[in-house]
Amino acid sequence: MAKVAEIEIPYKPRNWARPFHDSFQRWAAIVLHRRAGKTTATLNHHQRAAIDDAWEATRLRHIEPKFTDAEIDELLQHRQYGHILPLLGQAKSVAWEPLKRIASVIPHANPNESELSIKYPRAPKKSRVVVPITGPLNPDANSTTVRLFGADNPDAFRGLPFSGVAYDEYSQQPPNIHGEVVSKALADHLGYGIFEGTIKGKNQLFRTYEASKHDASWFTLWQDVDKTLATEDGATITAIRRAMADDLDQIAKGLMLQSEYDQEWYLSPSAAIKGAYYGKLLEQAIKERRVGPVPYDPALPVYDVWDLGKGPRMSVGMFQRFGRQMQMIDYHQGIESDGLPQVIAELKRRPYVWGKHFAPHDIKATDIGTGKTRLETAAALQWPFIEVPDIGVDDGINAGRLLFPRLWIDEQKCQPFIDAIGEYKQEWDEKKGMFRDVPYHNWASHPADMYRYAAVAEEQMTNDRPRPQQPQARPMVGPTAWMG
User: Fold this and answer.
1) Is 263 within the bounds of a domain?
2) Helices of type H across 326-482
3) 223, 251, 268: which is the final residue of a domain?
4) How far apart are CA 316 and CA 333, in angstroms?
5) 3 state DSSP class of 177
6) What mean pLDDT is reported for the chain?
7) Considering the domain boundaries, does residue 202 fall inside one?
8) What is the DSSP string of 203-252?
9) 475 pLDDT tier (thresholds 50, 70, 90)
10) Residue 290: Cβ within 10 Å count
């Protein structure tokens, strides 16, 4: 007779989380106020999926009813679940201890400090240990894993076959992280994807929720603090009320903005990110409807401005100038291992009349693989670059600020740029409790640097076209020639 062990997981779901845990939908978009318990809920969601074969099998059959038992058994092997936060350091400080705590009651669960992972063993079907709360626990060599990652190092999880992934604080992660890095990895196991967090403007988390809120194949939730106060009880409510009172006191003392309070607790999408260089300028551009459709004018040249890198770190903005008005009509970001040749080829496929091509000073750097400078490589591809003057980061950002009130941005073609420029911010000094006078380097840096170069190079975007040379008059000869 099989042994039965009752294990109490140290987790009590909040009321909002119960329908989330009960859902078998493959995708979820969850927008919650601060301190709503989303990280704790999602870690428990991963752990349940990792140790409960019956739940995972039911989820797979819900997605694809035609699966055979043999196919289900194959998909249940070697399952891996990823929980991604904006930074690896943040994953360790915010989620690692809670994950170890809920896993500590699972027999034979093995934490790995260096990988920030928990390995859960599985056993052959006939000797499984039944855990009534979470389902079958399978202590054997055949294992499943829950692991934490940081979006600042996507190469760490590129290509891993996931049975489930959560993007925690998705609004602070690179917008392309799912489509270009993770989505293909989820395909192997029909893995689930959870997009969650507190919104930071109308960026990727906001758009994901808006696009999916009426889609029956998604689980969606939008809950501000008023709903929580009306539906939760106990210590949760006490802690939230105290945190809100502390925030109101900080507003009264000038230490916090009302817009930040509204964003964190009431999910207001209009607040700019604290410390953002261009946040308020972007907000003003949206109010003035300078972010929207910006058509290409074939009568004027298109100027491309680059921030050089590899793959997603390669950013190219495409601009047209109308008097003092600058219009950003298009944007391109490299993928995978794209270099200059691949991105130049992509730009040549676009139906634009090209003007000047601008790149920063590192265009003169020598490529170790070819022994040529990037400038020489581009010239060989008939893409002659002009070097943008290096006036320093601070002066470049100031130039960008001066340009922004005259800038129009195509909302559809330049969405990754819009997400990045709103997120580009100063570095925070934890010890001093203040912002440093340097930019914080993350995924938003490359599009923001490109824009800084565009602001510096603006005056060289003159729309002047070289005049065709007039053919010289040939001397006349013959009986009527004046030289005759």
Assistant:
1) no
2) 340-348, 374-380, 393-403, 415-423, 445-457
3) 223
4) 6
5) helix
6) 88
7) yes
8) SHHHHHHHHHTT-TTEEEEEE-HHHHHHH--THHHHHHHHHHHHHHHHHH
9) very low
10) 19
Write down the residue that tokens 């265009």 correspond to.
Answer: 363
CA distance 36 to 25: 21
pLDDT band at residue 140 under the 50/70/90 scheme? very low
CB of 45 within 8 A of CB of 13? Answer: no
* Residue 475, SS3 per DSSP: coil
Residue type (1 letter), 8: E
The pLDDT, as a whole number, for residue 260 is: 87
* pTM listed for this prediction: 0.77
Asked whether residue 102 falls in the same domain as residue 202, the answer is yes
Q: Which of 264, 305, 307 is CA-nearest to residue 444? A: 307
Q: How far apart are CA 214 and CA 262, in angstroms?
A: 25
- C-alpha to C-alpha distances, 192 to 182, 359, 405, 454, nearest whole angstrom: 11, 41, 42, 40
- C-alpha triplet 421, 426, 428: angle, nearest 5°: 140
Residue where the block lists tokens 């047209």: 320
H helices, E strands: number in the chain: 17, 19
Sign of CA dihedral 23, 202, 307, 84: negative
Q: CATH number of the domain at 416, please.
A: 3.30.420.280
pLDDT in tens, 204-253: 999 999 999 999 999 999 999 999 999 998 888 899 999 999 999 999 99
Cβ atoms of 194 and 28 closer than 8 Å: yes
**Contact (CB, 8 A) for 162 and 145:** no
**Residue 244 CA, distance from chain mean position:** 28
What integer pLDDT is reported at residue 369 of this predicted model?
72
What whole-number distance in Å separates Cα of residue 103 and Cα of residue 109?
Answer: 6
Name residue 302's beta-bridge partners: 354
Q: Are 51 and 82 in contact (CB under 8 A)?
A: no
Identity at 458, one-letter amino acid code? E
> Maximum CA pair distance of the chain?
123
Q: Which of 278, 326, 334 is nearest to 303 (CA)?
A: 326
Mean pLDDT of 78-99: 95
State phi, psi for 18 to the nearest 5 degrees: -60, -50
Q: What ranges in 92-128 are assigned the alpha helix state H?
A: 97-103
Contact status, residue 134 vs residue 51, Cβ threshold 8 Å: yes
What pLDDT sits at residue 356?
96
Residue that terminates a domain, selected from 179, 200, 223 = 223
CA 219, 57, 189, 102 torsion: positive or negative? positive
First to last CA, the chain: 122
What the block records as the tokens of 117 is 């992972």
State which residues form the domain around 381. Answer: 286-460
Dig out the tokens for 293 from the structure: 């459709």
